[in-house]
Amino acid sequence: RWRSFLEGAVFTHNRRDLIYHFYDGIFLFPAGMNAAVRAVVRMGIYVGAKVYLIHEGYQGMVDGGENIKEATWEGVSSMLQVGGTVIGSARCKDFRSHEGRLKAAHNLVRHGITNLCVIGGDGSLTGANLFREEWSGLLAELVEQGLIEADAVQKYSALHIVGMVGSIDNDFCGTDMTIGTDSALHRIIEVVDAIMTTAQSHQRTFVLEVMGRHCGYLALVSALACGADWVLIPEMPPEDGWEEKMCQKLSTRSRGTRLNIIIVAEGAIDRHGKPITSSFVKDLVVKNLGFDTRVTILGHVQRGGTPSAFDRILASRMGVEAVLALLETTANTPACVVSLCGNQSVRVPLMECVQTVKVQKAMDQKRFEEAVKLRGRSFENNLKTYKLLAHRKPESELPTSNFNVAVLNVGAPAAGMNAAVRSAVRVGISEGHKMFAVNDGFEGFYKGQIKEIKWGDVGGWTGQGGSLLGTKRTLPAKHVEKIAEQMRKHNINALLVIGGFEALECLLQLYEARATFEEFCIPMCMLPATISNNVPGTDLSIGADTALNAIVETCDRIKQSASGTKRRVFIIETMGGYCGYLATVGGLAAGADAAYIYEEPFDIRDLQANVEHLTEKMKTSIQRGLVLRNENSSDNYTTDFIYQLYSEEGKGVFDCRKNVLGHMQQGGAPSPFDRNFGTKISAKAMQWLSQKLVETYRRGQVFANTEDSCCLLGMRARALVFQPVVQLKDDTDFVHRIPKEQWWLKLRPLMKILAKYKTSYDVSDSGQVEHVIHSRPKDSDASVAM
């Protein structure tokens, strides 16, 4: 099917086998761009195309010559972990002129290039679209000047453009997440975490200035991720008198808080358009409160560094999607941008994205509410969630629900659990509930380890790894009577369970226990939290992103250890039980040559083919190989067996090393994604529980015994969805503790293609053209875009 598609789309069209890849020189490149370069080059070569790289951006396209070079497979090796762009960039005034674009067109025709993959921001993409619109006129001029033959006009009649958005500000309409944003958040959170330790030690207030001259996304999301006390962004200036309100909030230090964090976007303004600088905020705090206050301006640190796992995967997926989009274009196809909506690839008309960016105009006219809405539903909900969690209402303004809600962690610890607990507690209190924390899961529940938890008790929890409540794998089935007794004792009216596969089993057991114990006839909700990402009903789980980053960072270091040595292959064992998510997606992000998982059975012939493939690659300029193996991928083909096989068969060509990553995948501070994902879905779960409590409250008590009152909240494609746990039983392989269908298996052919394997690629899941003006699903903000 794929081969027939290629034959129809590539080889029968005139010069459609030439793909051109370039950068806009006036654009500053965030981390993750090189992963996009690698994906476009290798996917292009895979489909039989010639791929050209143009160095030094638009200037290279205007100047031509050595700036335009044909790319090779080996030439883009060892690029995934490198930030910025390896092919350079430069400012180019020439391209803004008609004469400059005429030179650029001449250089493209000389190389037979009629397909452009543009990576950049709205300025880069707008310029490319103008170039496309002028294309036929430029060719006519070149013929008149005698620079090209007349038949070239027909031969190269159409210029096809596909864009990918790279910007740390995440300010481009039509995509949930731009390449580089997640890496920038990593840099910010690393600094914030380091600052918080010194701030606590010295009881200081820190004012952090982050990038965002016209967009406050980085400031807002980093504030949400670290639990900052105050945030200032250009889209939503504070109300008049904010100075007094901020100082009043910060003054709560006298009641036990040892630090304050204020995050300021570089473009922050007040309601009258006057800039709010970090130094102004510092002077304000010192003058009014007398606190020891320091300013840290992060600057270009946010643009640099190693790309995060998310950015590598996003860029790789978008690079492949860009090639597919170019293959399918016709002369009448408008330029499009490939992007991610939720967890799905989509294509959006380029000029719709650019023309919809009206935020600055709304801000200039002081229509700030509209400016926030124009940023998109995700930005708007981030702002609402931050306000809900950071600013506590006075007791007199809180609703009085008289409901008691318990929250507990179940199963293995996962980074982001504490952020979810903090969010649940504070949203619950804001809803008027009394919140109870259960220590050590259901084991602590039946032992009575239950206590009320207050707003201030969860301060600083967002950045903590592990589970501060404690967590155990104990299931409730054997202790339902004692658990019911504790629920009566504390009058628990609703239950929020945060955990992995064990949490799903727990809710199923409690649902079945409703027939015997009326105490379990209450609303119950589960949040998936496990590094294995093996919970049915959700595409992603809290903790999986942190584990992926740990795997990718370790693989980078391991591969670097072989620099300058002889050819070497590394065998890496990952966790995940029977679920191969970490091995597969980690392999895609780290540039692995193979990943062995339980879901895709393999035998000795497959192992032999992989060894031969690596042997062939090692005979070229490739110096290092990487093979990942899921811990339970096979009973017989163990990590030791694969290591010994590769060592024996690779003699004389490469040597071999092995490494078992173990529990380091579970530890460490949560990634920005896991902090925000846990925070947002927990807030949504608490709001759902509040709604269910009101719906099921009758005659002085809560009674909920329907299927839809015991749900799992998961991310499905583009939306957060509440799914009754009993309906998930048919979708679950309980023996191996994995879902029967897993979306990420579609990424495995992509990983193999980028590793130079000859394999089929299903194009049925490729992105479809969508329009920006179309409304997205109501909960699309819950996507991977944080």
Structural class: alpha/beta
Order of adjacent strands in the largest pleated sheet: 3-2-1-4-5-10-11-28
First-last Cα distance: 36 Å
Give me the Rg, rounded.
27 Å
Q: Give the overall average pLDDT.
A: 87
Strand content is: 15-25%
State the low-pLDDT regions, or none.
1-28, 774-786
The percentage helix is 25-40%
Verbal overview:
The protein is of the alpha/beta class and 786 residues long. The strands form 6 sheets. Strands 3-2-1-4-5-10-11-28 form an 8-stranded mixed beta sheet, with helices on both faces. Helix 9 links the parallel strand 7 and strand 8 (260-265). The chain is globular and about 90 Å long. The model is unreliable at 1-28 and 774-786 (pLDDT under 50). Homo- and heterotetramers. One of its GO terms (biological process) is fructose 1,6-bisphosphate metabolic process. InterPro entries: 6-Pfructokinase_euk, ATP_PFK, PFK_vert-type, Phosphofructokinase_CS, Phosphofructokinase_dom, PKF_sf.
In short:
The chain is an alpha/beta fold and 786 residues long. Helix content is 39%, strand content 17%. It catalyses: beta-D-fructose 6-phosphate + ATP = beta-D-fructose 1,6-bisphosphate + ADP + H(+).
Keywords:
single chain; 786 residues; alpha/beta; 8-stranded mixed sheet; 25 helices; 28 strands
Question: How is this fold's topology laid out?
Answer:
Layout: H1 2-11, E1 18-23, H2 33-46, E2 50-54, H3 57-63, E3 68-70, H4 98-110, E4 115-120, H5 122-144, H6 151-155, E5 160-165, H7 181-202, E6 205-210, H8 217-226, E7 230-232, H9 242-250, E8 260-265, H10 278-289, E9 293-297, H11 309-328, E10 336-341, E11 344-349, H12 350-355, H13 359-364, H14 368-374, H15 377-390, E12 404-410, H16 417-430, E13 434-438, H17 441-447, E14 450-452, E15 471-472, H18 480-490, E16 494-499, H19 501-513, E17 524-528, H20 544-560, E18 568-574, H21 581-590, E19 594-596, H22 604-618, E20 624-630, H23 639-649, E21 655-660, H24 672-695, E22 697-698, E23 701-702, E24 710-716, E25 719-724, E26 732-733, E27 738-739, H25 748-754, E28 768-769
Parallel strand pairs: 1-2, 1-4, 4-5, 5-10, 6-8, 6-9, 7-8, 11-28, 12-13, 12-15, 12-16, 16-17, 17-24, 18-20, 18-21, 19-20
Antiparallel strand pairs: 2-3, 10-11, 13-14, 22-23, 24-25, 26-27
